[in-house]
Structure formats: C-alpha cells, structure tokens
Amino acid sequence: MKLSSTHGKGSASRVVPMKGHRSAKGGNRVAFVIDDMGYDVSILEEILAIDVPITISILPHLPYSVTVAREAHRSGREVLLHLPMEPYGYPERRPGNGALLLRMDDNELVNQLEEDIRSVPHISGVNNHMGSRFMEDKEKVTLVLQYLKKKDLFFLDSLTTKDSKGLLVAGRIGLPHAGRDIFLDNDCDFEEAVDILHHIVEKKDLWKTIIIIGHSHESTVRAIGEARSLFRDNDIRIVPLSDLIE
Questions:
Q1: Angle 86-37-142 (CA atoms, 0-180°, nearest 5)?
Q2: Per the count of CB atoms within 10 A, which of 86, 146, 160, 202 is most buried?
Q3: Burial 64-91 (b: 16+ CB within 10 A, else e)
Q4: Which residue ranges make up each domain of the chain?
Q5: What pLDDT, on a 0 to 100 scale, did the predictor assign at position 187?
C-alpha cells in the first residue's frame, strides 16, 4: 500500500493497494517507525506510554542519541539507526551530522558509516534519513548495504525517491530488507494522520502488512495512540518492524 512516494511530497489521503505485498502469514499486521529521534527524550516518553511495539529510529551524533537508544532498548522497543544521506538540494538541504555524501570515496563512506553505527547502541537495522540523491546511486548504495550485511543489520528503505536502488540492491545481495509504505505525517497534521489510519482500517481487505513511517511530532504520536484501539478492534496487530523484514 502506498500513500506517497517521497517524504513531504505526494497525496497523503489516497490509498493505492499493492499486489503481492509481503507474506500473508499472521493476518493484518502494521509496523510503526518513528524517525528523527535523538533531539530530546520527552517524545520518547510519550511513545513508550502508548504501550505498543513502535520501532524507534535515531539520528546519529545528537545530544540524546545514546540516551534514547538505551531507554528504548530497556523498554523493549526495537532501535534503528536513522542514517543521514545526501538529498537533492544539498548543501542547502542539510541531512545533519554523520551524513553519507556522494563526494566521499569508499573508505570515507565506510568510516563515516562505522562512526554512525557506533553512535547509536542497540540497533537491529538501519533506515535512510533524506538521501533522495544518494539512494539513486547504485554503486554507493551497494557499498553501504554490503557493510550492513556484514554487521548483521537489516535495511528499511524510507523511499524518499521513487528511483531508489535500495530494495533492488538489498535483494540482489541477500540483505534482509523492506520498503516504507506510508509517510504518516507529511504535513504534521493530527487530523490528517488520524484520517490516514482510519482509511488503512477501512481498506484492510486489500492488504496484509504495512510499514508506516512517522516522525517525532507530538501530533503523530497522539494519532497513533488514538488509533490503537481501532486497530485492535479490527484485528490488526501492531508489530515490531523486524517482523515484516524479508
């Protein structure tokens, strides 16, 4: 199921079902990933209070990256590295500290990737932050994903570009992976996020699994909390992201 193909672009209200989407085992299952964590700890407390297995994706080298990772792990939540990558519009659009850039040679990329991985403890996988330009470079993507495979980490392609090579390369090299289906909060609007979640439930006969990425906004977390009982009443299970990785 797709609502939009790029972060911050596309319609966030039209659901288009995907055919042959992941395994049908276990009925309807949804994984929520909250990106851009690490700036503070207050939003993590709100996420943990919902008491569902939301996956926490943490930017490297932020003031609270380590604290959030440790607390999320201690609370039984899955932790990802939210890996910054070069977007279109760089350097005006800046992906943040620890970014992988196209101008880097292989050694520079691996060294930066190692630093980023070390900066966020307890990770089981990685998803890209921005990266609309980087993820279109097959050679660079292959280098990064091969290193993730070496480290026994899976990859979630945030699909910030329709021309991403992430899923293609991951499948070719045998790296466990999945792709994002929905961006929940393109406009940081609570009512819109709730409408999207209700629409997912209404269309549950058209899908088996969905991966939803939201961001560290109070409105997003509140919308997920509001939808929890709706999902439960419709036999839709919220699961850790790793349950939907193939």
A1: 35
A2: 160
A3: bbbebbebbbeeebbbbbbbbbbbeebe
A4: 29-244
A5: 80
